[in-house]
Design goal:
This protein has 19 helices and 16 strands. The protein is of the alpha/beta class. The strands form three sheets. A seven-stranded parallel β-sheet has the order 3-2-1-4-5-8-9, sandwiched between helices. Pathway: Protein modification; protein glycosylation.
């Protein structure tokens, strides 16, 4: 599809760190800004070259040069001239009392206000993560522009007591002791707080002209928790095309990747150069896990799988002859300002050292981000020479990430109910087979037995050793199978690369993205001409929001009255 000229798109994203959401936003920005041949030929293309296609502005509250993607790292990042940091003074939470969701909503509102004020002639506003600023753009800004909200996953399903929408098995609901009544009362207040924030999320999202999600899995979760978004729109609001049945606003746009490997393949193809096969999937290459250091990423699973493999090798159980266990490398985004990153990284190091100590192996190695690629390569070579080991690479750069995947024998992706997951695509693009949990987005990207292996999820069971957990054994068996048959692993990696090129390439991504931008712009124009949103879903979600707020207030008043009337004994037994 030919991209319409003179289109100004404003992206609003809270934190431009390192992660799947940030990678997607930057790919959307590049797809908006660059012509088809520029983004695939060089990441150093200038904004002037692409100005005839579209113009962009990226607004964020935080972008650290030491913890961001190369595209936005000043001064040479392709997108760095378009990044505007506003509202960095707003706190992330209220420290001891929490309130992260409320502070995030406050930051998003302020960021949206500034973005709208500084870009009064923008054609489309693209907001992701939180929809709090959407109603302001639609109702209080007199701008003839479309509003597109990209939902990576409902924030309602991302509370601290859940793992991507399911209750965390480690959550302790049994509180005893003198402070139990206070703790239970605070839990009720937290429920009321989340109730209000969840209602505001659905109400805000309903104002969007177009809602885009990253997978069919995420679309199903949105439909479960926010059913009002799937109600038919006003009969006067004619669909813009034949695929817009009942004015449906929730669409799927799979994220795409544009690595240096895929760009090189395209250049070789255009120049009729024979593409040499990747040397990855070698039995001597490391086992790689790429994830942010967050508990929901379930990185401990791959450590326990490595423990199971060490146990097999140590006892020579079902191990192929002359097969050496390669090192395990755990890499990914790490922000020292993020408390969870710091805590979870320390937990993983403790677990890794305990596993290695069990087999009389040296302690785990940590490569700081400041170390050069040559130093990291030397450490990897020493690890291969000395046998099994565990290496941590926090805050890995794009260059090191590409190098790491190009030398890997297998990539392990451990999150459960992951919304989409960009890492499996990056691994398959590097011709590396992937082992992942059979749930969420990986079920839409990985073909089991063809481009990798999908393993059934089993929750932790205190009655068995972690290395005997069915999921852990499934990962260990899959890794062992790939290591013991390098030729089959190489063929699997090649099929994965072909799947990425065919289904998740930038050309397909760019075409679909411009179709969505054009539709959002048209919907915004029609809404502006009509003078109001007039969606039944908006009315219904507003009613639900008012109702939820009312019930929350009544419930809080009832609990307070009951505690005063009947005493804390009644409250404790009731809860």
């Amino acid at each position: 599809m030919a991209a319409p000229s003179n289109t100004h798109v404003v992206f609003i994203h809270l934190d431009l760190g390192i992660g799947g959401a940030e990678s997607l936003v930057l790919n959307l920005a590049k797809a908006t800004l660059l012509p088809e041949d520029a983004s695939s030929s060089s990441t150093s293309a200038t904004a002037d070259t692409a100005s005839s296609i579209g113009s962009i502005s990226i607004y964020t509250t935080h972008c650290s040069p030491s913890h961001c993607y190369d595209e936005v790292r000043p001064p040479n990042g392709l997108l760095s001239p378009h990044v505007h940091v506003r509202g960095s003074w707003i706190p992330r939470n209220f420290y001891l009392i929490g309130g992260t969701a409320l502070c995030s909503a406050w930051r998003m509102l302020y960021l949206t206000y500034i973005a709208a004020k500084e870009n009064p002639t923008a054609n489309v506003f693209v907001i992701d993560v939180l929809p709090t600023g959407v109603p302001y753009l639609v109702e209080w800004c007199n701008v003839n522009s479309g509003v597109l909200f990209y939902c990576h996953f409902p924030d309602k399903l991302l509370t601290r007591d859940t793992v991507n929408g399911e209750m965390d098995a480690t959550t302790n609901n049994n509180v005893v002791g003198a402070s139990s009544r206070l703790v239970k009362y605070l839990r009720w207040l937290k429920r009321l707080y989340r109730w209000v924030m969840d209602a505001i999320e659905e109400w805000s999202m309903s104002y969007s002209d177009l809602i885009v999600v990253n997978s069919l899995f995420t679309r199903g979760e949105v439909e479960k928790v926010f059913p009002s978004l799937f109600l038919p729109r006003n009969i006067m609001d004619e669909p813009t095309n034949s695929s817009d049945r009942h004015g449906e606003r929730v669409r799927v746009l799979y994220p795409s990747i544009e690595s240096s490997l895929s760009r090189q393949r395209k250049m070789n193809t255009n120049n009729s150069v024979t593409v040499t096969e990747s040397s990855s999937s070698s039995s001597s290459g490391p086992i790689v896990s790429l994830n942010r250091f967050e508990r929901k990423k379930n990185i401990a699973l791959v450590l326990h799988a490595y423990d199971a493999l060490l146990h097999r090798f140590n006892n020579e159980e079902n191990v192929s002859e002359n097969l050496l266990l390669p090192p395990l490398i755990i890499a990914g985004g790490y922000d020292p300002l993020n408390v969870e990153n710091v805590e979870y990284f320390a937990e993983l190091r403790t677990l890794a050292d305990a596993i290695l100590n069990r087999y009389n192996l040296p302690q785990s190695i940590v490569c700081s981000p400041s170390k050069s690629s040559s130093v990291v390569n030397d450490i990897l070579l020493d690890a291969k020479a000395n046998g099994p080991c565990i290496i941590f690479l926090p805050s890995i750069s794009d260059a090191k990430r590409t190098t790491l995947l190009s030398t890997a024998s297998v990539s392990c992706y451990t999150p459960y109910r992951e919304h989409f997951g960009i890492v499996p695509l990056e691994a398959m693009d590097a011709s590396v087979p992937v082992v992942a949990i059979r749930s969420g987005g990986p079920m839409e990207t990985i073909v089991d037995g063809v481009t990798g292996y999908l393993v059934d999820y089993s929750p932790d069971d205190a009655r068995v050793l972690p290395r005997d957990n069915p999921s852990v054994l499934g990962f260990a068996n899959a890794i062992d199978k790939l290591l013991s048959n390098p030729s089959a692993a190489k063929a699997m990696g090649q099929r994965g690369r072909e799947r990425v090129d065919q289904e998740f390439g930038m050309e397909t991504f760019r075409r679909q993205w411009w179709e969505l931008l054009s539709e959002a712009r048209e919907r915004g124009s029609r809404r502006h001409r009509r003078g109001c949103t007039s969606y039944p879903s908006l009315i219904w979600s507003s009613v639900r929001t008012v109702g939820d707020l009312g019930w929350a207030v009544l419930l809080a008043l009832f609990i307070t009255w009951a505690m005063k009337r009947f005493g804390t004994t009644w409250y404790s037994s009731a809860v």
